[in-house]
Design goal:
Blueprint (H helix, E strand, L loop, with lengths): L5 H13 L10 E6 L2 E7 L9 H4 L2 H5 L15 H11 L8 E6 L3 H10 L3 E6 L4 H9 L3 E4 L3
Helix pairs in contact: 5-6
Length: 148
């Protein structure tokens, strides 16, 4: 049996984390890692204590909002946001860490990742947000696509 590479290992964990998502449109998982140790995980869904979209329906679907637009019109947080928040909630610094995410980050998440000190982003699939990519590149964050 062949052991998975570290990148494959952490990306597979990100895909497992995504299974906890309560989003009706896209299930995304994120894992923040430093020195081959998991610091925090996150998946997309409504904030703690708030009714999930799988129970009340998708506001974005009702309003016919296209993917990649009007992020504020959503009950949920993105996986990257939840991972950063979980680290902060538990007093864990993510400075100089890397993140594995099942989907390339949107511009809002990218700005948060830049300011959180994330140095590299591993992603499994793309996302229609060129501003995000250009800001990450300008910030010097390495972008690595990981195919499973």
């Amino acid at each position: 049996m062949e052991r998975p590479s570290w990148d494959r290992y952490f990306m597979e964990i990100a895909h497992l984390v995504a299974t906890r998502s309560t989003c009706l449109r896209r299930k995304v998982g994120a894992v923040i890692v430093k020195d081959k140790r998991i610091l925090a995980t996150g998946y997309n869904g409504a904030p703690s204590g708030i009714t999930h979209c799988c129970e009340v329906g998708c506001l974005r679907e009702k309003l016919k909002v296209p993917s990649g637009e009007r992020h504020e019109l959503c009950r949920g947080l993105h996986a990257e946001q939840n991972a950063i928040i979980q680290a902060a909630l538990h007093g864990v610094s993510v400075k100089d860490a890397v993140i594995y995410t099942t989907t390339f980050p949107c511009v809002i998440c990218s700005k948060m990742l830049i300011n959180a000190g994330i140095r590299r982003i591993y992603y499994a699939s793309g996302y229609p947000d060129e501003l995000s990519r250009s800001m990450l590149e300008e910030a010097g964050i390495e972008l690595v696509e990981v195919k499973l």
